[in-house]
Design brief:
Elements lengths: L6 H9 L5 E3 L11 H18 L19 H14 L12 E3 L2 H25 L8
Parallel strand pairs: 1-2
Length: 135
């Protein structure tokens, strides 16, 4: 992975054990499209517009949700399964991301699985005389 933009960042954070909870509906469609499909669609749209010279502006859409829906619940499941079978190097914790639609539960799990461990690790670094990176 050469960047952490878009869903790549979510996947890597989940695989490293950093991302433990995410607010999303398990039933919502995750319209994740590979970049080569988007590039090919853009090239095809430019070719069509160049060859046919339409009089009106044409709006092109590149989606997969209507024909091949992939839900966020499935994304979470496959992230967990994949990174448990193929763990990333130097993971901080065992990968286990859970998607929650309830905002109160989501905020509770942010505190329990993100904030408290970070504070404990900062305390450990301070007690051992090491530099705390973030404040």
């Amino acid at each position: 992975v050469d960047n952490f933009n878009g869903p790549s960042g979510l996947f890597i954070a989940a695989g490293k054990g950093i991302l433990r909870t995410m607010r999303a509906s398990n039933n919502a469609v995750a319209d994740l499209i590979p970049v080569d499909v988007v590039v090919n669609t853009t090239l095809a749209a430019a070719w069509y517009s160049g060859v046919n010279r339409p009089r009106n502006i044409i709006v092109y859409n590149c989606t997969t949700g209507g024909t091949n829906p992939f839900h966020w619940g499935e994304v979470g499941y496959y992230i967990n399964v994949n990174f448990k079978m193929n763990p990333l190097e130097q993971a901080l914790r065992r990968p286990n991301v859970i998607l929650r639609s309830n905002p109160l539960l989501h905020h509770y799990w942010i505190a329990v699985s993100h904030i408290v461990p970070a504070m404990l690790f900062d305390a450990y670094l301070s007690l051992t005389g090491q530099i705390v990176r973030a404040h």
